[in-house]
């Protein structure tokens, strides 16, 4: 799931975006996307309460950014986000749009 920061950002500015993923506790969950060169190690997601609610926030520039969750090494589409795009591997990437 993606939540754009509700502050009064000016159009055309970078924006803080929160990503969340629900699973079972104890998994290794990360965020990989066009904004971090698809590096599954650069943006880990934390389960702060130990109940399987993983989250992280990143600052994204205006435009479309593609991403996937990486859960225990498996690349997963964000089922809570209806925005997606085809990729060069014949699968889909989730898309977040920053205005």
Characterise the protein shown here.
The chain is about 0% helix and about 50% strand. It is mainly β and about 100 residues long. The chain has a single domain (about 1-99), classed as Sandwich (Immunoglobulin-like). The strands form two sheets. Strands 3, 4, 6, 7, 8 and 9 form a six-stranded antiparallel beta sheet that branches. It has a three-stranded antiparallel beta sheet with strand order 1-2-5, with no helix packed on it. The chain is globular. The model has no long low-confidence stretch (mean pLDDT about 90).
Topology:
Layout: E1 2-4, E2 15-22, E3 29-33, E4 44-45, E5 53-60, E6 63-71, E7 74-76, E8 84-86, E9 92-98
Antiparallel strand pairs: 1-2, 2-5, 3-4, 3-6, 6-7, 6-9, 8-9
CATH class: Mainly Beta
| Overall outline | globular
Number of separate structural domains: 1
Secondary-structure-based class equals mainly beta
CATH topology: Immunoglobulin-like
Number of helices: 0
Helix content bin: under 10%
Mean pLDDT: 92
| Poorly predicted spans | none
How far is the first residue's CA from the last residue's CA? 18 Å
- E-strand count: 9
Which terms summarize this structure?
single chain; Immunoglobulin-like; three-stranded antiparallel beta sheet
Task: State the gist of this model.
With 99 residues, the chain is mainly β. The protein has no helices and 9 strands.
């Amino acid at each position: 799931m993606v939540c754009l920061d509700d502050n009064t950002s000016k159009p055309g500015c970078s924006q803080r975006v929160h990503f969340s993923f629900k699973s079972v506790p104890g998994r290794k969950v990360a965020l990989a996307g066009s904004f971090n060169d698809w590096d599954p190690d650069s943006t880990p997601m934390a389960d702060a309460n130990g109940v399987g609610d993983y989250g992280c926030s990143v600052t994204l520039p205006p435009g479309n950014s593609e991403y996937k969750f990486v859960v225990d090494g498996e690349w997963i589409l964000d089922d809570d986000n209806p925005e997606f795009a085809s990729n060069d591997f014949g699968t889909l990437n989730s898309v977040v749009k920053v205005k």
